[in-house]
Amino acid sequence: MRRIVTLLAAGGLAAASVTAVVAPAESASAKATTKPGSVAWHTCDDMFLTELGIECGTLSVPLDATRQHGQRITLALSRLEHTAPPEDYQGIMLVNPGGPGGSGLALSFLGYLVPDDVRAAYDWIGFDPRGVGSSSPQVRCIPDYFVGPRPDYDIATGTEHEWLDRVQDYVQACRSNGVGLLNHLKTVDNVHDMDAIRRALGQEQLNFYGFSYGTYLAQVYATLFPDQVRRMVLDANVDPRNVWYDANISQDYAFETVIGLFFAWVAGYDSTYHLGDTAAEVEQAYYDARAELSAQPLGRLGPSELSDAVLVAGYVQALWPDIAQGLSDLVNDADPTILTGWYEAFMGPGDDNGYAMYLATECTDAPWPRDWDFWHADNSDVAEDAPFLTWPNAWFNAPCAFWAAPAGQPVDVDGSEAPPLLLVSETLDAATPFAGSLEVRSRFPDSVLVAVEGGTTHANSLAGNECVDGRIFAYLRDGSLPDRLPGNQADVTCAPLPAPVPAAAEAAATAGLGSHATGLSLLLSRPR
Q: What is the dihedral of CA 110, 111, 116, 118, to 10 degrees?
């Protein structure tokens, strides 16, 4: 599933008096080596974490969970330690930002986004999954794979064979650089690592807060280790029926809807952006810009980079003004600066570790079609109705048609033995469509779903929506949940945060931007 990552709004961070977030560069050098199954905590190399009072550590785990005395690898961990007295301590809160392939080492700071008493009651544990970021060894295949301008995603421009060559070169590089990990990077391997973290920290059960792909980790963990689950918050739920080829097709249609809403919003501010006063005119301006960049890129910005930059609007509604301004600058002034910045922030060209690990998990979790003619026909059909994302998504995932490690079978997610979980979803979340949250609710019969009706932002809890966040705080505080309603529906429905307004109109807006009023508002869970 393309880029199931956590996009955390900077407004939420501002609430915790955090003004900037950078991906940590925790180094394993000069650190004491811990014995297998134990964690030695030490000062983090990253100043951001250190200033927040967060410690770092490493944990040695088996490469293959079925061979406890075989080869071992190292996970990088962080901890925001509890401060509550022993009688109020509620255990570890393991946090995962999504991906797969997302670096979660910094995510222990999530404790600063909850009330003081909730933060104090848990040890907030961030970690880099195996092969990712500061964990060791790491997988990198072609670090500059995303450096632009790249071939046009759209095969109508005649780039299909060029992309196929690139994709197969990437797969071959991963085969060569897989450092022995490629057969052991499935979701179930990460789930066993989660349980190893639990045991190493001396806990009978774990609490978990997962975003996006992190919700799938939780689903599988709760299936395999239901007795070890205490509380789990699952924000932006992966549909366990669609692992993973079908999940991408579902995304294509869902992003077409959300980008259409974005184009309509831009049209409503034509006096600001000058891209047209109807959604159709704005959409045409976007596709015209793609065609011009296909003929003549502007520096690093070609048509594929433009697609990646504008896709950000499909993830985070609060960023609509910035993406619209970038598109306006490109169309009206031939200035690619803003969009180039967003493409580079989103794709992380120059370090492909997150992408390599994304593929290493998704390509082996479940079988993919191995016949490219099938991909070509299927995506050609989808693109007729959902042109915005279909071919960008297909090429992002195309290495799975040729992947160097064999695929397994996904776990049959079954939450019948799990304790009550809290599920959260925005009903127009395009990266993890709402049907997935309803499916997870049906498989976890004691759990409760809080839905944000009409919300389009991906993984948007702890962002200032009191209707959502208040339920999360109550659940984390004492396990209380709203009543579960009968039938296939959300148990609580919340209104979304107010839509953003352009900066020029902000002072005149009748509704503010709430917690999203800051500038750069992405924490990407892709390692840097």
A: 110
| CA 160 – CA 395 distance, rounded (Å) | 9
Cross-strand pairs, 43: 55
207 CA to centre of own chain: 19
Distance CA 355, CA 348 (A): 9
Say how many C-beta atoms besides its own lie within 10 A of residue 479's C-beta.
Answer: 13
Nearest to 126 by CA among 66, 201, 188, 185: 201
**Angular region, 20: left φ>0, alpha ψ -120 to 50, beta rest:** beta
Using pLDDT thresholds of 50, 70 and 90, give the confidence band for residue 144: very high
> Please, what is the angle between helix 320-333 and helix 303-315, to 10°?
150
Q: How far apart are CA 261 and CA 456, in angstroms?
A: 9
Where do the DSSP E strands lie in 154-260? 206-211, 229-235
CA gap 218, 232 in Å, rounded = 8
Looking up tokens 């705080």, which residue turns up? 473
Q: Going by DSSP bridges, is the β-strand pair 42-43/55-62 parallel, antiparallel, or unpaired? A: antiparallel
Q: Which amino acid is at 72?
A: R
Measured distance CA(363)–CA(29) in Å, rounded: 31
pTM: 0.92
pLDDT of the residue at 31: 47
For residue range 168-179, what is the model confidence (pLDDT) as tens digits? 999 999 999 998
Three-class SS of residue 196?
helix
Per the CB < 8 A criterion, the answer to whether 86 and 55 are in contact is no
Task: Write the pLDDT tens digit of every residue in 482-500.
Answer: 999 999 999 999 999 999 9
Q: Do 398 and 425 touch, CB atoms closer than 8 A? A: no
DSSP character for 478? H
The per-residue DSSP string of 108-163 comes to: GGGGGGS-HHHHHHSEEEEEEPTTSTTSBS---S-TTTTPSSPPPS-GGGS-HHHH
Mean pLDDT, the chain, integer: 90
Report the b/e string of 328-338 with b at 16+ CB within 10 A: bbbbeeeebeb
> End-to-end alpha-carbon separation of the chain, Å?
21
More confident residue, 289 or 32: 289
pLDDT tens by residue, 120-137:
999 999 999 999 999 999
SS (H, E, C) 21-67: CCCCCCCCCCCCCCCCCCCCCEECCCHHHHHCCCEEEEEEEECCCCC
Average pLDDT over residues 378-400: 98
Q: Which residues are catalytic?
A: 212, 429, 458
Nearby residues of 143 by Cβ (< 8 Å), 6 or more positions away: 350, 351, 352
**3-state SS, one letter per residue, for 493-528:** EECCCCCCCCHHHHHHCCCCCHHHCCCCCCCCCCCC
Question: Which residue do the tokens 């910005």 mark?
Answer: 301
